[in-house]
Write a structure and sequence with these properties.
This protein is 40% helix and 17% strand. The longest helix has 24 residues. Helix 1 runs parallel beside helix 4, helix 2 crosses helix 3 and helix 4 packs across helix 6. It contains 13 helices and twelve strands. It folds into two domains: 202 residues, Isopropylmalate Dehydrogenase (3-Layer(aba) Sandwich); 141 residues, Isopropylmalate Dehydrogenase, CATH 3.40.718. It is an alpha/beta fold.
């Protein structure tokens, strides 16, 4: 189904209808298709359209022994989901997929599902997109440079700067750098990049999460936040000057603080978000507090995108043991954010 045609219909959702959310099924050999099949049995605060190969979903449902009725998605008549039924926007696989067995031949298929959902959001047909996990390594094995959903969607939408933030366990944790080798992190943290990250983070906390005056706690990069330059100069030469500049512009910023004490409950009590300098500085704490129910959010995009906080779990694919909690939470958060967007648009119309 061509996404370009969706925009020509200029569909407007009724005020009383729940948000229409595109869910990509992710890596076809992983647990993404399992989770999408399970969605048909759930009551959710949104209408769901799974972007995937229809036969992949049917086959996984048979393997899981789960009843499933597929309804072909029509942008002219986005039906309300019913028990046991799943709306599907069909994107064909390159080759039949087997649970637990990666096949680089299907990497283009995975990217087409992302393009279909993202383009549908940009055209105003979908209110948000939610992504099941994909396997970055097999996409790279297919000869396609790929570092993750966040970077792919930024390029697809022409967005200059996006921010990865996870929500869960009563916390929001954003990242100054995302999927980088540890040896490359310090070089990637620049004054310009850090300022842009903080501006996007503050803007979307206000715009998407309705936080009127966000208070952001910023981590240092080095142990003890650099120990006044004795353990590294990134704090004194990069982080502190950026924070001081933005404070003068009205930002409520705390830090830079040592990461080993930053996540104490007293520190977080009046905090709206933590900005960590790199992936494994901030996310282990959040995932410990919320594993299986955390949500990944991409800030700065022209539409709402959330995702699960876990990987493809190839060993669980087709077993019936995959936990659906994170995907359900990602849909709930996307639906809530989309509802907020609608209310703001009505107020300004």
């Amino acid at each position: 189904m061509a996404v370009a045609a969706f925009g020509q219909l200029n569909i407007k959702h009724s005020k009383i209808k729940p948000p229409l959310i595109a869910v990509t099924a992710g890596e076809p050999a992983g647990i993404g298709p399992d989770l999408c099949v399970e969605l048909a049995q759930r009551r959710l605060p949104a209408r769901i359209v799974v972007v995937a190969d229809r036969e992949l979903l049917r086959g996984r449902a048979r393997r899981l022994r789960v009843p499933l009725r597929l309804v072909e998605f029509s942008p002219a008549d986005p039906l309300k989901s019913s028990a046991g039924a799943l709306m599907v926007c069909h994107v064909p696989l390159e080759r039949p997929a087997a649970a637990g067995r990666l096949d680089p031949s299907n990497s283009r298929y995975v990217l087409r599902t992302l393009e279909t959902a993202a383009d549908g959001c940009r055209e105003g047909m979908f209110d948000a997109m939610v992504t099941a996990p994909l396997q970055k390594s097999v996409i790279n094995d297919a000869g396609i440079p790929f570092t993750g959903h966040t970077e792919f969607l930024a390029e697809r939408t022409g967005t200059e700067h996006v921010v990865m933030m996870l929500v869960g366990g009563g916390m929001r944790v954003a990242l100054a750098t995302t999927h980088l080798a540890l040896k490359d992190v310090a070089r990637a943290i620049t004054r310009e990049g850090l300022e842009r990250t903080l501006r996007v983070l503050r803007q979307d906390l206000i715009r998407r999460f309705s936080v009127a005056a966000p208070r952001i706690v910023v981590a240092g990069l080095n142990p003890h936040a650099g120990e006044s330059g004795f353990l590294g100069r990134e704090e004194t030469e990069i982080i502190v000057p950026v924070l001081e500049k933005l404070r003068r512009a009205g930002f409520d910023l705390v830090g830079p603080l040592p990461a080993d004490t930053l996540f104490h409950p007293k520190r977080l009590k009046d905090c709206d978000c933590v900005l960590a300098m790199y992936h494994d500085q901030g996310l282990p704490v959040l995932k410990y507090a919320s594993f299986g129910a955390g949500v990944n959010v991409t800030l700065g995009l022209p539409f709402i995108r959330t995702s699960v906080d876990h990987g493809t779990a190839l060993d669980l694919a087709g077993s019936g043991r995959a936990e659906i909690g994170s995907l359900v939470e990602a849909i709930k958060l996307a639906a809530g954010l989309a509802g907020g967007d609608r209310n703001r648009k009505r107020r300004t119309a």
